[in-house]
Amino acid sequence: MKWGDFVLRLLVRRRDREAISGDLLEEYREHVRPTRGPWAARLWYARQVLSFIGPLGWGVLIGVMLGTWQLVGTAAEPLAEDTPAVMIGIVGTMLVSWTLASMAAALPSRRFTHALVAGIIAGVATMAVIDVTSILRVNLFLDEIRHRDDWVNLMARFDASGVQSLRAYANWEYVRSTPIVLAFGAVAGGVCGAVAGVFNGISRTPLARASN
To answer: In terms of domains, do 81 and 5 share one?
Structure first.
């Protein structure tokens, strides 16, 4: 499990690395692997490592993956539109990812408020990264994407604005929409967090309820 131990050490504080790494490896080698078998034990270890990623980390990771996909897709097909189907796929991926991240973040405590806050943090972080990558896409591929059909309205506003530079105008359009983008992340992430909190509550065992 060298890869897992390496990732774990990146996620935890320096002063806790040896203790957490040692305890997890001991549990894996002495109890989990002998009773569950190699594949189930590896899955268990991976889940333990991923549990150290907080909602902010998950949000940034989701944003980086979707933003990278957006940039690569535009580089490959600059004139391909952001069709409703594509946008629904992106939004659906974000919603599912935020729900899972919220469930994971709140799993130790099983508290609804923890899941709710985790969803908001993950949603805002994801949308912040996507907002940055969207602005980056404008600056990298402006000469190509300005001819896309889904840029017709922006180009019409530019022509009526009197601004000389399309690049400056397009950047301003994206920047001024940032509060709306982040608000969407907060609201949608909060809904996902609430759903995760409900699921975590439903999945609690009678023993866990009694212990609380």
So the answer is: no
